[in-house]
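Data availability (excerpt). The following record was deposited with the supplementary files.
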Amino acid sequence: MNRCLQGDSAAWEVIVRSYARRICSLAYRYTGSKDQADDLTQEIFVRIYQNLASFRADSGNLLPWVLKISRNWIIDRYRQARRLPQLAGSQEIEAMHLQDESRPNQYRLIEQAEASRILGKALDSLSDEDRNAIILRELEGMGYQEMAERLGIPKGTVKSRIHRARNALARQLSRNPAVREMRLN
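Predicted structure:
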């Protein structure tokens, strides 16, 4: 890290190679598109590079810091675009066909935009705790134990929040006539 701060490009390359795959995977889960994930990954690395001086080596491993910056950037992008890919866990979300490649592009894009808007609104209706749990689980792909450690709560509480959030999303989405229409198609 010190070598990076001193402008050593080889040290920066080591960081990029070490974390690029994980960040790109995280970005792909957000966008559902390889090209968009690659673009988002580059933006995240720019953000990481700009914030290198704020990393505190005494706080521990670099990975949690990198993932925190990545997650925050993705959440910022989500808030700006109000778009989120398909989440596992409820039939209502899956019925929205957010990543259905078999539909014609123009129609799929319109459907995806509408589905993303609806899903964003449903996510906004969740409590901060439940929304964060869904984001950590579905966007970052964290396991229950890792989430428990990150959030400082018992593993059972993490599972309860995920369950409660998925059920709340399913209820919200099942009430929406546009989602019911998407299920018919």
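Summary of structural features: Residues 9-31 form the longest helix (23 residues).
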